[in-house]
Amino acid sequence: MTDSSEIRIPQEAFDWYDEYAHGDIDRRTFMSRLATLVGAGISMSLLTSALLPNYALAEQVSFNDPDIVASFSNFESPEGHLEGKGYLVKPRKLSGMTGTVLVVHENRGLNPYIKDVARRLAKQGYIAFAPDALHSLGGYPGNDDTGKVMQKSLDRSKIEQDFIAAARFLKTFESSNGKLGVVGFCFGGYISNMLAAALPDVIDAAVPFYGTPAKDPLVNHVRGPLMIHFAELDQRVNASWPAYEALLMKNNVDYQAFVYPGVNHGFHNDSTGRYNEDAAELAWSRSLQFFGKHLA
């Protein structure tokens, strides 16, 4: 019997999943392509279990961890969907004022992986807030496929305004020391870059994971500091980097950029087979050091 742990998933499968996750192909096309890889010890169940999220794997910090307090909080968003809502996680014992971090989800709403990232930050002493872009539609529906369709149906500019409102809300939150960081993944990486440009006087540290830059002409307002993480195999996002880096250098923006070799878009997400523990842990430790420097 073949040991599935020894079977290497072909790179095409990860590339197709990236297309599917970003709406470039539909589920039927994605599954049809996967079917062409079945054989030689690779089954459809092996492929889908490796690619599709299993959120039971993503909990590094339990919601009832004794060191944190998790709840939900609403905020006003007059230029967006009028009201936003997010997952708020605080250290149970706060010794004075502390830094805050906005956590921005992927293109499918506030799923369990992103909630866990917020809890990880609270364990480190930060007040973390993860808004749900799908709040106006009833919130994250419990599965990524539906969440992705829901998020795509919303006005992109209003979603951006919701995150701008969330950043302002968190900046002045009770017990905040006035320092605000943002970390986001995929779509959230884009939002992190966008906020660094739209709110250069509000964002004190931005950490985009595999996200594209803000659009012209807004991108010219990025001030930093930034810490940017890329996956070597992520051709779609990486194509935007040379021009973005040239602009950051031209404008003397304080930035760091890291490319993690041999990993795919989504390598930090520990709920799918794209997860790479070594790269994820290194990127996360760097991010925490970065926040520690700029949000103290």
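^ that was protein a. below is b, sequence first then the tokens
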Amino acid sequence: MAISKGINKITGSLQGMSIYTMRGDDKIYVRSKGGANKSTIQNSPKFAKVRLNNKEWLGCTLLASNIRSAITPLNRLEDYAVSGALNALAKQIQLEDLAGEHGVRGLFLSQHKEMLAGFNVSRKQVLETVLRVPMNYTVDRSMVSARVSIQSINTELHLVNYRNLPFFRIIISLGSVSDMT
């Protein structure tokens, strides 16, 4: 069903055509519907590689979802599409598995945890630019515990209070994310 958004602005489906806009663009795009149907993709030998790619991508999205769950308290700070960035990061971790075959490569976050270093849920309010004191941490995997040490904070020197709020809080979240195969 097509939807009119004003004169000469229609989006949706109309007689085998898809009419749509893209984010950040005012143009209206039209393409004909086509491509293989679900049954063909699932059964045809021509689509064997597509099935392997879909299987691997499923693993990437599951790992990204697990990472998102581990950092749930930070969701309200997001100012961009974090899920897409985590999916891309998971794909990079998956490509590091050189022993696994295409379609069954593992996602070993424990071996490549350094790839998460520097990942931020906000591009405008990066922690290191808002709170300017060194933080040290240790993680004890066997005891499932962590210790975080933050030096004394002089709010006039070490805190960039760009919104001039009367209070601040520091949220520290310890979550676990398993390797996936």
